[in-house]
């Protein structure tokens, strides 16, 4: 792995393909596709479903995507199952079209396939496989009583968005559907089940459903028994273990594509069944893989609609922290997760507004150009943002104790309102809750060599990377696959099926996938660190304003 002082933001799959040494349209790639030596990864993110095809060397060779949005229905954030399949089919069709355009062939099979998706949430099915209530996503924060009761019972933090919190809240609320629940799963687990017929989860995704015992690699037996005893007066005979998917580690085959599954993914009938699938994973796990952050003292941060940082621990934490989840890598190693419900969406909204202004002036620009120009302007801002304050809270934020959110921009009469200060403050605001959670880890004495960042925000070279380094006061690394994200990560996990018998996941990533990767590392600038600290003090004090806004509007 080489460090490169030149940031390596990726603008497209084609750019990464060429950087990885694969010639677009080459005979070798075409042969790999026809022979089924490629691996396919599909990730259902909050705003986009993306498919990524990789060759035997794990380098991306084609991609396809489909935009989608959650709906707020009856005060619940949800996606319909119809939109899940429409999006998956559109994303897969776009990938096939990309392959055909680049290489002149159409794939009919793959060496392996993997599915990942945003973690947590609640998908409950009856014995006939019918969805009992609309999908409740990670964004819902209505499970406070259940999460608090379970956290106290287990002596283990149970966040609001975890699947077990949703189930227990439904039990507390005596929801009629609870008696009919035959199994529950995550979004990745649901798609995998429909493709293979198996109700399984990768251990990383499962660790956001119910606590994992890292010694056994399965659900914590003590806590399972405690839950059954807790709900017995309301739901006698409940055995939680029977409702949860089987847990599998990375590298273990998790089923094969059935004829029905192949038709669901590719209604044209071109895709043949029989493709092996890796365990379905959550976006946190695929982010760790995509940044080679599965070993102790490594960490990664994923920035999208939400922001989450994953820090692989050398040992368990000394005590329970409400700000931190304890989850696992796709191999089952313990990870502290700082999950922020709100990420870059508010930044994108401001970029769209400035783009509309440019159009009104008669100087229209592409959205990526507008976003990049605004981010670069942030570097010219004062270190503390000029006294400005911004909150990106489109939804509630458990780390700061807010059940609902209202995006806010606030300034005092003596603050310095400039475009540079405004943009720096917006970026700082996106990293505010993340910084609070990371400071809790620092107080625990958790060591961190570097944080690897990925997500579209890092495609603009050097800006978000430098300001994130200030927010976490640690070096931030961005690699050549920063813009590829979790779809590439789950494609790599699918490809790992062929290597798991000979190498553990960390060795496979370091020695094969990332052996020649170019990495840009930015150390925290002392002035930026001091400036962000001043901003965070102002940000923490101003949470009362955010809370008042949510109560008044």
Automatic annotation (TrEMBL):
<feature type="domain" description="Carbohydrate kinase FGGY N-terminal">
    <location>
        <begin position="40"/>
        <end position="265"/>
    </location>
</feature>
<protein>
    <submittedName>
        <fullName>ATPase</fullName>
    </submittedName>
</protein>
<feature type="domain" description="Carbohydrate kinase FGGY C-terminal">
    <location>
        <begin position="299"/>
        <end position="497"/>
    </location>
</feature>
<keyword id="KW-0808">Transferase</keyword>
<keyword id="KW-0859">Xylose metabolism</keyword>
<dbReference type="InterPro" id="IPR050406">
    <property type="entry name" value="FGGY_Carb_Kinase"/>
</dbReference>
<feature type="region of interest" description="Disordered">
    <location>
        <begin position="1"/>
        <end position="24"/>
    </location>
</feature>
<dbReference type="InterPro" id="IPR018485">
    <property type="entry name" value="FGGY_C"/>
</dbReference>
<keyword id="KW-0418">Kinase</keyword>
<dbReference type="Pfam" id="PF00370">
    <property type="entry name" value="FGGY_N"/>
</dbReference>
<keyword id="KW-0119">Carbohydrate metabolism</keyword>
<comment type="similarity">
    <text>Belongs to the FGGY kinase family.</text>
</comment>
<dbReference type="InterPro" id="IPR018484">
    <property type="entry name" value="FGGY_N"/>
</dbReference>
<dbReference type="InterPro" id="IPR043129">
    <property type="entry name" value="ATPase_NBD"/>
</dbReference>
<dbReference type="Pfam" id="PF02782">
    <property type="entry name" value="FGGY_C"/>
</dbReference>
């Amino acid at each position: 792995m080489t460090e490169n002082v030149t940031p390596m933001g990726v603008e497209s799959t084609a750019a990464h393909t060429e950087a990885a040494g694969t010639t677009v349209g080459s005979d070798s790639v075409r042969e790999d596709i026809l022979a089924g030596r490629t691996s396919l990864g599909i990730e259902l993110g909050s705003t986009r479903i993306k498919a990524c095809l990789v060759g035997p060397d794990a380098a991306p060779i084609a991609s396809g995507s489909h935009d989608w949005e959650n709906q707020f229905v009856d005060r619940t954030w949800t996606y319909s199952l119809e939109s899940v399949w429409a999006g998956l089919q559109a994303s897969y069709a776009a990938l096939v079209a990309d392959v055909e355009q680049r290489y002149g062939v159409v794939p009919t099979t793959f060496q392996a396939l993997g599915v990942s998706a945003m973690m947590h949430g609640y998908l409950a099915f009856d014995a006939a496989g019918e969805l009992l209530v609309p999908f409740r996503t990670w964004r819902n924060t209505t499970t406070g009583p259940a999460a608090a009761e379970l956290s106290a019972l287990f002596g283990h933090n149970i966040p609001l968005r975890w699947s077990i919190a949703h189930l227990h809240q439904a039990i507390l609320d005596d929801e009629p559907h609870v008696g009919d629940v035959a199994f529950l799963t995550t979004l990745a687990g649901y798609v995998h089940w429909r493709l293979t017929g198996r109700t399984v989860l990768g251990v990383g995704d499962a660790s956001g459903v119910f606590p994992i015992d890292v010694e056994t690699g399965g659900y914590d037996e003590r806590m399972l028994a405690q839950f059954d005893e807790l709900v017995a007066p309301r739901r006698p005979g409940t055995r939680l273990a029977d409702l949860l998917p089987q847990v599998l580690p990375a590298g273990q085959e998790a089923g094969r594509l059935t004829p029905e599954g192949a038709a669901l993914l590719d209604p044209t009938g071109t895709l043949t069944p029989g493709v092996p699938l890796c365990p379905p994973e959550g976006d946190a796990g695929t982010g760790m893989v995509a940044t080679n952050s599965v070993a102790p003292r490594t960490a990664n941060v994923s920035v999208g609609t939400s922001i989450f940082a994953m820090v692989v621990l050398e040992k368990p934490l000394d005590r329970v922290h409400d700000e931190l989840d304890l989850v696992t890598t796709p191999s089952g190693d313990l990870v502290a997760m700082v999950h922020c419900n709100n990420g870059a969406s508010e930044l994108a909204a401001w970029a769209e507004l400035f783009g509309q202004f440019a159009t009104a002036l008669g100087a229209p620009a592409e959205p990526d150009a507008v976003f990049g120009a605004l981010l670069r302007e942030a570097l010219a801002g004062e270190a503390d943002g000029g006294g400005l304050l911004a909150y990106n809270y489109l939804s509630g934020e458990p780390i700061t104790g807010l059940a609902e959110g209202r995006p806010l921009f606030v300034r005092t009469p003596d603050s310095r309102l400039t475009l540079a200060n405004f943009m720096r403050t917006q970026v700082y605001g996106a990293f505010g809750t993340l910084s609070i959670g990371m400071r809790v880890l620092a107080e625990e004495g958790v060591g961190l060599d570097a944080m690897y960042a990925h997500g579209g925000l890092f495609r603009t070279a050097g800006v978000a990377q430098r300001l994130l380094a200030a927010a976490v006061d640690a070096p931030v690394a961005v690699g050549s696959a920063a813009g590829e994200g979790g779809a590439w990560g789950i494609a790599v996990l699918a490809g790992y099926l062929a290597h798991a018998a000979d190498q553990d996941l960390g060795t496979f990533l370091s020695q094969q996938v990332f052996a020649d990767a170019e990495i840009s590392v930015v150390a925290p600038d002392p002035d930026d660190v001091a400036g962000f600290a001043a901003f965070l003090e102002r940000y923490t004090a101003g949470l009362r304003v955010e809370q008042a806004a949510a109560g008044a509007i």
